[in-house]
Structures
1.
Amino acid sequence: MPPAREKSARDLLDFYLEAGVDALVGEAPVDRFAPETAAPPTRTPQPVSLPPDLEIKGRASPPAAPIAPDEAAMAARAAAKTAETLDELRAILEKFDGCALKATATQLVFADGNPKARVMFIGEAPGRDEDIEGLPFVGRSGKLLDRMLAAIGLDRTSVYIANIVPWRPPGNRTPTPQESAICLPFIRRQIELADPDILVCLGGPSAQTLLGIKEGITKTRGRWFTFNTGKREIRALPTFHPAFLLRSPLQKRFAWRDFLAIKKALAG
Ligand code: URA
């Protein structure tokens, strides 16, 4: 590549990186929010040629053709059902190729904490720090979550933590409804196998996906819902996501009420 073109390519990549676009998935844009019936792009993605030091995660060849979201969700349901333990579920997820996020993520972010805990917290999807460490909630919002847990006498030995989507969406974007639907059978099975007494949904997307509610988190936080694990009914509480609390610290007073309610429920 001529030096001037290489410099422009580097500048453009720097610009993308700063904007949070740090993974290459193909040449043709894909609208992942489009209705499922939309026709998939017909152009076969070609390998993108970059200078060797600009190769992103060694992806020289185009990704395998994605399976349709419906088919992937069906495969996820069938695969999740076969897991008899959390370790088996993790191994099944490691091999599952139905969610395109796996191709751009560094690794699976399965869970942290104590799987025998009475309370399970569920976020939306891993971010950059979680993708690097392979553990949920280890970045800035995780540090806040740890402080909130400590305030009610809990820590990662007394809670179990996971996400709806166990792979980081590129650039920390919100997972699409299709991606969440594909991962839902796995997190549902994870809850069933961990068998907590109380579920805490961190943020609107987690609450909406797990509890099947349409209302936003401002309306639903602090209200107890019932969640059927497949084995039994347990109590579920939506609360604000710690990342939101970092941006809107005034809302922490409501989250504090929710955490006191969790403490009370665990004591009861
Ligand atoms: N936000 C989430 O929803 N989950 C994480 O693991 C980290 C940040």
2.
Amino acid sequence: MLIKRPADIAPSEITPRSLFDGRRDFIRAAGLGAGAALLGGVLPVPAHAQTAARGAKLGPLARSAFSTDEKLNDYQDITGYCNFYEFGTDKGDPARNAHRMTTRPWTVSLEGMVQKPKTLAIEDVLRLAPLEERIYRLRCVEAWSMVVPWVGIPMSALLKQVEPLTGAKYVEFVTYHNPKEMPGTLLPVLDWPYVEGLRLDEAMHPLTLLAVGLYGEVLPNQNGAPMRLIVPWKYGFKSAKSIVKIRFTDKEPLSAWTRANGREYGFYSNVNPEVDHPRWSQARERRLGEFTKRKTLMFNGYGDQVASLYTGMDLKKYF
Ligand code: MTE
């Protein structure tokens, strides 16, 4: 396998690489030849994902007012077509490999510029607020999107536990890293562990979710069990999976993707159809399972709720 330097690899490359690799199950499941998929067919889902064991039921769940009423992507799409590079860069790799990840016991430590640093077990996190179902659009930087019925609690419910100091302006999310369980981390695709960051006001925003489930069930490992970030107005890579540490800081965190290629992946990464990725347009996207591309919406359609966070900022400069 070709090992690329971090600066040479980009999420955009994954789909074509899967197709060029001619991964058998990928193409068999799609019922498409590689050429057909490249010419603009629906995005394929690996066959094995369709037999994946379902998680335990969560509930009762309140339906959030923030939910979209768009058609949901089905469970197979959401759990079979994943980005979780710790398990491999092919979209089917996380569904194939993530069962190796140990998710119990699991703790998350909240540290840095806070009054009361704490380490919480996942069971404690689940008790912080009532579980909600939030149906969100997820727009990937690779210009595909899907609609997911997440289950979670507001991220603010967790962050408030440690009383951030007034000087804290950002939060850094550090994710699980165990090479014994994560074959993808044996390759220097990114500088592991996967790290992401948000401004504190973004992290505290009511739309920002700490997801613990989807489709009313416990989150499958490949989608970031047992807890992951969801920031629906940003490109999907900001939504760090399998979080183990949250660090409050006064400096902008350096995310794994910005570290790998800062020219292509900025800190803000707000969905913005007017700012192209240096190598492709972000004006349109393909919804998983659909043939015709649709227009990408500013802030992924969540502008009414979040545009005020960026008043006065040049979003071409702070991309
Ligand atoms: N988190 C970790 N730890 N590792 C990853 O590779 N990929 C990101 C994000 N979070 C990633 C991650 C990217 S590129 C996307 S698009 C979303 O997870 C995908 O989430 P999904 O697979 O649940 O759709």
